[in-house]
Amino acid sequence: MGRYAFVLRRPLQLVPVLIGISLVTFLLSQAMPGDPIRVMLGPKASEEAIAFVRARYGLDQPILVQYGYYLINVLRGDFGQSLAFRSPVLDVILERLAPTIYLLVYGLVLTLLFTVALAVAAARRQGRWVDQLVRFVCIAGLGLPSFWLGLMLIMFLSLKLKLFPVSGFAAAPIDNLWQLFLPALTIAIAVTPTLTRNLRATLVSQLASDYVVAGRSKGLPERWIFYRHVFPNSLLPTISLLGIVVSFLIGGTVVVETVFNVPGLGQLMVRAVLKRDYFTVQGITLFFSIGVVLTTFLVDLVSVALDPRVKL
Amino acid sequence: MSAAQTEAAGGTSRWPASLLAGVAIVLAWLLVAGLGPSFSPHDPIAVDLANALVPPGSDHVLGTDSFGRDILTRIVHGARIDLMMAFFGVVGPFLLGTMVGLVAGNFGGVADAVLMRILDVTVSFPYFVLVIAIVAVLEPGLTSYFVSLTLVNWVSYARLVRSEVLVLREADFVLAARLIGVGEVRVMSHHLLPNAITPAVVFVFTDAVLTIVLGSSLGFLGLGVQPPAAEWGVMIAEGQLYLATAWWICVFPGLAIATLAFGFSLIADGLAKQLHTAP
Amino acid sequence: MTAPILSVEDLAVTFATAAGPVAALQGVSFALQPGEVLGIVGESGSGKTVACRSVMRLLAANAQVRSGRILFEGRDMLALDEADLARIRGDRIAMIFQNPSTHLDPLMTAGGQVAEALRAHRGMGAREARRQAIDLLAEMRIPEPERRVDSYPHQLSGGMRQRVMIAAALACRPGVLLADEPTTALDVTVQAQILGLLKGLRAEHGLSIILVSHDLGVIAQMCDRVVVMKDGKVVETGPIADIIHRPRMDYTRQLIASQPALMLPAMPSNRVREPILAVRNLSVHYASSRGLSGLLTGQARHVVRAVDDVGFSLGQGETLGIVGESGSGKSTIARAIVGLAPVHAGEIDFAGRSVRRQDAAARLRFQRSVQMVFQDPFTSLNPSFTIARTLAEPLRRHRLCAPADIAARIAELMAKVELPDDLLSRRPSQLSGGQRQRVGIARALAVEPRLIIADEVTSALDVTIQAQILGLFKKLRDSMGLTIVLISHDLAVVRHLCERVVVMRHGRLVEHGVTAEVFAAPRDPYTQELLAAIPRIAIA
Fold it and tell me: What's the rounded Cα separation, in Å, for the pair A123 and A308?
């Protein structure tokens, strides 16, 4: 069996995780305060209507059967009705998907640029002032709350200097490079310290490894050793972290979309929680987690492509 | 190779500066939280619209907010809440996660498989999103925050401890203990845990940083501590509307969060350096 | 004598540490003649590796050269700038290292790493460099070089990796090769092949070699002259025959006397012994299960037969050696006996009772009777326990003495393994390797066992410390009537200590008999190969 056979096998391994995810989101709905159907249909709904919907979602059945109903409904794309938006949860989510995905990809690209630049600068001048500076930036950056950082950026760059728009999402993708720069920058700053530290530590430990000494003994230039040996070897452990990074970036969108008024899923989630629109909260949670699972799967693919040793 | 040996024999090394600086910052905030409220001349909650939006000056050192409340007073009172968030937000996950990691790592087999599948599922949710979802169904507030953090964040500690235990349980000194007939509980408590706990202890301080940031974010979004309580995130949310006209409402509470978090972050960095592990 | 090709004069190196500067080399001088093999022999901390790396200026960042010159082709290596240094490294002087697995980049093909030096020094294109890499691999007698050129290091065996490293080092045809413990990580039969290869290259290309080794046998077999080092200084230098037959310095004599190959062989005894341990048809299989996903995809479980149908027995007071190379299953047998390995089939009887199906009480009795001493003294003691606590644990667990007597009993144990009492309050990190190993022995002795299984107990130790530990084992055996199973890759150690021997290969027992007879007339071809591969020190 070839190394890439896992591309077929891995999705099967994801099945238990996906079942677990659906179980958690199902349990969320069970923990909701009050009768979700009454909440969903509003105070004026008739008893017959409530009984009808209750039966449709299987809520009159034992809990395991209810879970079965939930699974079937989710697989059919029925996430329930959004109470706040008076339309199916799936429609509400899909409407707001694009800004979030744009923001995530933008934020990820900025994160990777910052991380590689900072970590390489620090590791190549280990112990010197650049390294100390990067270390300080990482320590301080870790504790900067995104919502406050976002407000500060708005205050200085948008309100005072009028360099960037205050908020919103543009229609044309190209305009959003501008429009979403500050939000993307904010979420990138939130995850960069952790990732930079990790990559720097890996680079430093790889620089101390035996194959570097062997490379020097062959008379290879330091740059050659760094970029052809040390860097590829350091990239792998950092790439395996990308699943977690994306998961943190998604968390970041919740805050940043609210601060910058980006009409995405994060903002929707906060509004839904505040309006007790539980089905929407449940739907978004499920959506985001499937996003994380897919990212992890892609990261595994990249690792296999880069590392001849990996067998999954 | 000989350098490592001499280093091990050397022994005496100083505490890193970052650790000392971090301890100083956190102690300073603890002092403020402990003593500050008894010295503050203003009330943190009472509304005084006549004095609304006063810029920083002699009466109100850091200015007042739109309800006329003194910002400095509110920051000093808020220190209690945010320090409490850091402490209780970390304790639950640390205890639960360490136990799970120890048990899963030591016993392996079915226990490990089940616990690790639960872990897989938990990390499949974006951390912040799952916390918000749990807080949402439990009603926003501090208690919900601690409960949801424990339910979600034990995974960080479980992973750290388990990966250490997986290596240690194959170490010869653990095998030797088993050959002597030392029981499982004592093997775990005396041989595995003391040697596996270091990375988790260091992570406690990094985690405190994340917990402060997360807790104040929830306050900001209206999902955590509820107004009019003087929580720093809540204060920033209240100042959001006055960003262009009364900058001080947002700026100072943010600096408070950043300095406290910076203190914990420095401790994590210094401890990691001292104990030769990752922050 | 002609002019040396490389000479080191009065070299002094210190390392900056947290506890201040530590001298690594002091006044070290030696010279390499064209076409000769110069050996540097010494124990850990002797400075032999530092001396070797100094030549190439490959020392760690905290190293500082205090004085001295290293002359190569009329220039002082220590005075060269980085660019000149890079031109000499790999082109005029090359180096190979102890551990080929870590000294090769795991993400680059074997061919890529051989071709690199050619591309850097000769500016050669990728295709031409690859063609030459194939030729070089062939020259290192790597089978199927056209295929192996594209293999990654993890796809190659240890011996093959070392051949790749030699090919990469010699790609630009340097005149000098520095070999730092090149065979220490390899099995003895593979070591013999690599040493043979180096001999051939020297004869063919007139290569001058500096061979650094802790193993006097390897040095004696390979070198024309030898430098003996200790504590960062040269003890003595001379032709190999002079050093071995007429050592002038005490330390050299001690080093030679510590060679297990030169120790008296164990004498077979005719005493009829009461049987204590019987292993019959033992098989240990490790199955790598793929769990639920394995079931889902119908993937077969992959079974490793670590031990396959092995049987032997042992009498009270006897010492049995189990020898074999890595992967032979010798350590697995030890683990199976003490219940730490999954026994697939077969029977293990101790004192007439099966050890496989024990109730809790029987298990506890068994644990009082059989103890193990481990290979790596750095991992065999709990780093957070003091020595006293480590030794008290078995006494408490088995309630071997009243709590008030524990201290006295611990002191007794320390005396038995010849350690001073003031170590009792220390932690393992404050002890030397030899001291830790003695603590490990004391812990095993604490329960007054009848059988001790010693798993490679000296292979992590320096040869003089090894000699002391072996002496201790002998003394304890003779004074306490201990039965010992000694597991080792080192045939000389087994010959010295064990009356009978079991030879293992790939999980199977290939030969079993009285040690003296097996060594004198091995029947199995593998045993013959193994014995032939031991580097011998010819003593008049």
Answer: 25
Q: Please write the tens of the pLDDT for every residue from C464-518.
A: 999 999 999 999 998 988 999 999 999 999 999 999 999 999 999 999 999 999 9
Interface probe with A: pick from C92, C105, C181, C290, most Cβ of A within 10 Å: C105
Condensed to tens digits (0 to 9), the pLDDT of residues C22-54 reads 999 999 999 999 999 999 999 988 999 999 999
Q: Is residue B78 part of a domain?
A: yes
Residue B173 with chain C: CB contacts under 8 Å: 379-383
Q: Is B102 on the interface with A (CB under 8 A)?
A: no
Show the tokens assigned to A209: 């490894």
With beta carbons less than 8 A apart as the criterion, state whether B165 and B102 touch: yes
Instruction: Residue B248: give the domain boundaries.
Output: 17-36+59-277
The answer to the question of residue B264 being in a domain is yes
Sheet of C233-239, strand order: C93-96, C176-180, C208-213, C37-41, C225-230, C233-239
**Which residues 154-193 of C have a C-beta within 8 angstroms of A?**
154-155, 165, 168-169, 171
CATH of domain A89-306: 1.10.3720.10
DSSP states of B161-172: HHHHHHHHTTSH
The pTM (predicted TM-score) of the whole model is 0.89
Question: Residues A92-101: what's their mean pLDDT?
Answer: 94
Buried b (16+ CB within 10 A) or exposed e, A217-236: bbbbeeebbbebbbbbbbbb
The half-sphere exposure of A288 on its side-chain side, counting CA atoms within 13 A, is 36
The string of pLDDT tens digits covering residues C238-276 is: 999 999 999 999 999 999 999 988 888 888 777 778 889
B279 touches A at CB < 8 Å = yes
Nearest CA in chain A to B131: A251
CA contacts within 13 A on the Cβ side of C506:
1
A215 vs C99: CB contact, 8 Å cut-off?
Answer: no
Q: What CATH number has the domain bearing residue B191?
A: 1.10.3720.10
Quick check: helix, strand or coil at residue C455?
Answer: strand
Q: What is the pLDDT of residues C323-356, one digit of tens each?
A: 999 889 999 999 999 988 889 999 999 998 998 8
Nearest residue to A30 (alpha-carbon basis) of A278, A311, A285, A275 = A278
Q: How far apart are CA A282 and CA A70, in angstroms?
A: 12
Q: Does B156 touch chain A (CB under 8 A)?
A: no
Q: What is the pLDDT of residue C319?
A: 94
3-state secondary structure of C277: strand
Number of domains in chain B: 1
Compute the distance between CA of residue A207 and CA of residue C272 in angstroms, rounded to an integer: 60
Sheet of C63-72: strand order equals C20-32, C6-17, C63-72, C75-76
Query: Helices (H), strands (E): how many in chain C?
Result: 21, 20
Contact A217 C165 (CB under 8 A): no
Pinpoint the alpha helices (H) of chain A: 6-31, 36-41, 47-56, 63-75, 89-95, 97-124, 129-142, 146-153, 173-179, 181-207, 210-217, 222-225, 231-239, 242-259, 265-274, 278-306
DSSP-derived pairing of the beta strands C37-41 and C63-72: unpaired
User: Which of C62, C98, C393, C429 has the most B C-beta neighbours within 10 Å, making it the best mutation to test the interface with B?
Assistant: C393
Residue B212 domain flag: yes
Per the model's pLDDT, the better-predicted residue between A20 and C297 turns out to be A20
Residue A230 DSSP class: I
Residue B258 lies in a domain: yes
Residue C318's pLDDT is what? Answer: 92
Q: Is the Cβ–Cβ distance between C515 and C198 less than 8 Å?
A: no
Among C13, C17, C399, the strongest candidate for a mutation testing the B interface, having the largest count of B CBs within 10 A, is: C17
Question: Which residue is closest to B216 within chain A, CA to CA?
Answer: A145
Name residues 369-388 of chain C within 8 A of B (Cβ).
370-372, 374-376, 379-385
